Structures are given as C-alpha cells and as structure tokens.
Amino acid sequence: RQLIFDNPSGFIVPVDGTVSDVDGYVRLSSSPSVLPSFRPSSVPSNAPSNIPSTPPSFRPSSVPSAVPTPCPACPAQTINVTDITLPDDKCSVDYDDIPLTVVAHYKELDCMKFEIDQVWVEPMSERMFIHFDDIDTGLDRCEKREYAAFYDTVGPLCARCVNGYATVEIFLLDSIFLSPTDTATIPPLCNPPGDADGYTCVTTFQMECGCR
Q1: E strands within the chain?
Q2: The model scores a pTM over 0.70
Q3: Contact present, 177 and 65 (Cβ < 8 Å)
Q4: Cα separations (Å) of 181 from 93, 175, 198, 200?
Q5: pLDDT digits (tens, 9 = 90+) for 116-129
C-alpha cells in the first residue's frame, strides 16, 4: 500500500522510506530503499556506530617516546651493600650504620643509583672524594666535596654495574680528626690538593646489582 501526499513543491522527502514523484505527488513506499542515500541525514543517530570511523594503525611508531621509563629491577632496600675495605686502608674513625643508600637499581641502564652520607667526621670533614665507575661516560669519576658537614648527603649518583657489582670508594682527607695510621692514596683523578696537610683513609662499598 502507498501513501500519497499533496506536494506541489516536491521538496518534502521522508527519512525512512523511498520516494516516487508522479504528477506533483510524493508517494512513500512501505519498503525501505535498497540503495543508501547520497546525502547525510540532518538528524543525528540515536545509537553509536558499531564500526570505528578510523581503523587502528598496524605499524609501530617510528618516533620513540620522549620520556624513558627505566623500571627498578627490584626494591632498593633489598639490594646487598657490603663494606669490602682492605684492613690496611680502613679509616681510624668508624661509622655506625652503612652510609651508602641505594636509591634504585636500573636494570635497563645496568647501574645503581646511590647517595652517600658523611658520617665519619664530626662536625665536618675537610675533604671527601667519592670515586666510582660512571654510567654516563663508562669511565672513572670522582665527586669532590670540601668541608662536608656531618651527615651531609652527596648524590644521587649512578655507578655502572661490572660483573654484577657496582663499587664505590669514599676517601677522606682531614688534618684534625684522622690519625697517622690513615695513609690511603687518593686517585689522581680526584685531583687532591698537593699542598694539603692531613691524613687520608678510604672506605669501599660494593653493591650487588640484583635482589637479595
């Protein structure tokens, strides 16, 4: 059955049926059109489309992420830190708690991020040198602090892991609080002052690059 409306202008077009125009009349078919309309509907759809408008990309991005995301291999508090100082090099002044704090173990970079507290000499040490294998350059590095107060923190620094371990040496040079038995040799890389009076000692720590 067809519905016929008087439509002299011929501009009224239904949105849900096909149209035939004969003698100024618009006739609506009771069956939907087989072919889709070439003009967009002026009325928005009541339901979202089940088909995405743009297909996902199947190729990886050629540009890396702007921010690297190195994840710690294991919690810092589970990393072994050992004092491996040779007996003849030990400082005449000792420490109560290990002054090296592991901040993180970066597995992707293969390095240990750490901090050092000056806990040997109170109220301050004249000079402190921290010697380690630097992850950024792959070479030895020496971090120098003058008049480091008691419990001053140096770092964070990042020591490269070699054969599963990262090694850090802390040298002290002081003319008041160290003794004549403190005779360690400070590496030339640390550029110790040649005219400085005082005694030198070293404490060596080894960090295991992995969890306990």
Answers
A1: 3-6, 19-22, 25-28, 81-83, 100-106, 111-117, 124-133, 140-149, 153-160, 165-174, 199-208
A2: no
A3: no
A4: 11, 12, 11, 9
A5: 999 998 888 888 99
